[in-house]
């Protein structure tokens, strides 16, 4: 019964004009980080996978690939709950200048083999944990592949916002409202909320992407592409939501409900 009571309470708060938009999440004081960087070159069996799930910043990330052939991989994976310490240049974000990110993965890869290299990656801003409900997925099964790709994610406030604290920043953003200059001054180079990939591929086989952004009764965006054959592809997939919270007016406004 407790679970049912909580669901009903949340529904009533939404009906009575509580802020429903997704402001950036407050990073923990004792923040956590993970990084991995490697270069691999050789011939043989490939079995690679990564998984990062962090409810505090609404992040779900998975990537995997398996194959048997000639293989070269130069990859960096970096994750930080404090986005201020993870700054990277992403051409489609912040005008190409350095951006504060919670997750970034840069991949340069070459593969050739009779056995297909099969795998993909999935990056999700999970709405249940305070994200925006947007995700990007890549899938492939290829006998030949040359890839240069960046996956990126951001969901938190600046760790040291000017003139305020991460906890008080949400209120400051609400006051800034439509004043984009004021919002930019508060957020700096932090682009939260943000989910996306940039990729350049040359391949023989099957490669494709799926992207969705769903909010119940409000938004449903889907983008799907799949190619089988010999192709070259250059693509950007990006979901970005302005971090300013927006108060939802409701019919029961002013009523004690």
Give the topology:
Elements lengths: L1 H14 L17 E22 L4 E22 L6 E3 L8 E3 L2 E23 L8 E21 L11 H11 L3 H8 L6 E22 L3 E22 L17
Antiparallel strand pairs: 1-2, 2-5, 3-4, 5-6, 6-7, 7-8
Helix pairs in contact: 2-3
Order of helices and strands: HEEEEEEHHEE
Q: Care to count the β-strands?
A: 8
Number of helices: 3
Low-confidence parts, pLDDT < 50 over ≥5 residues?
1-19
**Computed Rg:** 21 Å
Strand order of the main beta sheet, please?
1-2-5-6-7-8
What profile does the largest beta sheet have?
A: 6 strands, antiparallel
Mean pLDDT: 89
User: Which structural class do you get from the secondary structure elements?
Assistant: mainly beta
Give the distance, in angstroms, between the N- and C-terminal Cα atoms. 21 Å
